[in-house]
Amino acid sequence: MDVLDLTRLQFAVVTIYHYLFVPLSICLSATAAGLQIAWLRSRNERHLLLTKFVGKLLIVTFAVGVVTGLVQEFQFGLGWSAFAKFYGDVFGPTLAIEGMLAFFLEATFLALWYFGWERLPRAVHTATIVIVAVGTLLSAYIILAANSFMQNPVAYAIDATTGRAHLTSFRELMTNEVVLAAFPHTMAGAMMAGGGLLMAIGVWRTVADNAFRTLGRLGAWLMLIGGAGTALSGDHLGKVMTAVQPMKMAAAEALYETTTGAPFSVFALGRLGHEKPFLTIEIPKLLSFLGTGSFNGTVQGIDDLQAQYSAQYGAGSYVPMIPVAFWTFRLMIGAGVLGMAFAAYYLWVSAASRRLRIPLLPRFLQMGSGTPTWVKRVLLISPALPAAANTFGWVFTETARQPWLAFGISKVSDGISPGLTSAEVIASLVGFTVIYGFLAVAWCRLVVHLSRKPLRPDISDISDKSAELAPAY
User: Fold this and answer.
1) Is 270 helix (H, G, I), strand (E, B) or coil?
2) pLDDT digit of tens for each residue in the chain (473 aa)?
3) Where are the beta strands (DSSP E) in 247-365?
4) N or C terminus: fewer CB in 10 A for the chain?
5) From the centroid of its chain, how far is CA 4?
6) What distance in Å separates the CA atoms of residue 160 and residue 204, rounded to the nearest whole number?
7) Can the peptide bond before residue 184 be classed as cis, meaning omega within 30 degrees of 0?
8) C-alpha distance from residue 229 to each of 67, 186, 236 (Å)
9) Strands (DSSP E) along 278-411, which ranges?
10) Please, what is the Cα angle at 325 between 321 and 329, to 5 degrees?
11) Residues 6+ apart with CB under 8 A from 142
12) What percent of the residues of the chain are helix, what percent strand, and what percent coil, each to the nearest 5?
């Protein structure tokens, strides 16, 4: 691989690894806030125990996310300084605000929450974790706005003196139609990711503690609701992307000819090209509906778009890697649907733990103390499914935009740092990979350690501190 391909690989590794923790932090912060509000209202001890447990998971995940996020932002200077130099005045405000939200707002109030038990009034203490949850949402929105500029550049102008792009309207940047569609889709995916982790922990520890049973069901509901939200918001996002990046939708189906009432291939076996694969399973007119909202809508083909872009932007190939776009789009959907199926299964059969039997389900699949080990082991992979769906979704989003770095105005080859050598990229890639490997092991060990501990109230959780201690005769 040449320097450009190595740099792209490096950025992909850093970004994909970082994004494994981002949706978990988003979901865990909101879940901890919701559980603490529920405890504040009900004084249910189970809510308090789960609040502290989810909060500890959040702290571990947040710490790893911050470290990997710093490296991701440094990538703009390490490998893409030409892009950072030209578009820095547009990206700068978003990265600065996100940095302040992540490192000042979220970190400060997360520390206040952790050390503030029994030191702050309960309402004030609850407000600290709510602020953390809101901060993660704002941070995510601002970063998505920066990414949406790359998908659909808006609110910029080229300075005639410096030749650099500068921001013309921060409000317009924040209300880009792509970010308005991508934000709910991304947050629903984050709900699935966090729900999958909580469900897996609940399944693993159900027999040991009733509170974990509640955690497992909560995680399953988050995963199921998040999956439904991902599907609904993804439908809208697909229509927006078809309008601003028609080549991306054409690549998702490997559609070379402009078609009215275009079908959607659920599965294809054979080479993806001008000739159709020898085996396909298609849903008639579904692609037209996904892209235009009409079953009889017209979807532009790759060949027509290539000719249009060549005339508009100059000679060259504007076709992304079709097999990557085609299969990542389907793997994204498949992993998400399978995760929803796991959540629905757990919610359905967990009624057996309350001595209820489900007549339509074989006894060996009933969820209870006698659940076979293999069933639990299958459910323990729940966190991997939304993680895979999120990863495949981002790979599709970024690779199907190629060869553009910022669509229509800057190609990937234009943004790489000048003078960068293959040896430098390989050295940094190996270093990042080794460090990230240690971080992954540390995070997994900490999560397992926290999950093994029984959920028991602390002495400070005793509500009636004014009561006199009785002699323990």
Assistant:
1) coil
2) 889 999 999 999 999 999 999 999 999 999 999 999 999 999 889 999 999 999 999 999 999 998 888 888 788 788 999 988 888 888 888 888 887 877 788 999 999 999 999 899 999 999 999 999 999 999 999 999 999 999 999 999 988 888 888 899 999 999 999 999 999 999 999 999 999 999 999 988 876 567 888 899 999 999 999 999 999 999 999 999 999 999 999 999 888 999 999 888 887 776 676 666 667 788 899 889 988 889 999 999 999 999 999 999 999 999 999 999 999 999 999 999 999 999 998 888 876 545 444 444 455 455 554 456 777 778 889 999 999 999 999 999 999 998 999 898 889 989 999 989 999 999 999 998 898 999 999 999 999 999 988 877 654 454 444 344 444 43
3) 259-260, 264-269, 279-283, 298-299
4) C
5) 26
6) 62
7) no
8) 29, 10, 11
9) 279-283, 298-299, 404-406, 410-411
10) 170
11) 94, 97, 98, 101, 174
12) 70, 5, 25
Question: What is the residue extent of each domain of the chain?
Answer: 3-245+320-455
Altogether, the residues listed in the chain come to a count of 473
Q: What is the pTM of this model?
A: 0.90
* Both structure tokens of 277: 């694969």
126 by Cβ neighbours in 10 Å (0-12 / 13-18 / 19+) ranks as: buried
> What token pair was written down for 178?
């792509």
- The residues near 162 (Cβ < 8 Å, ≥ 6 apart) are none
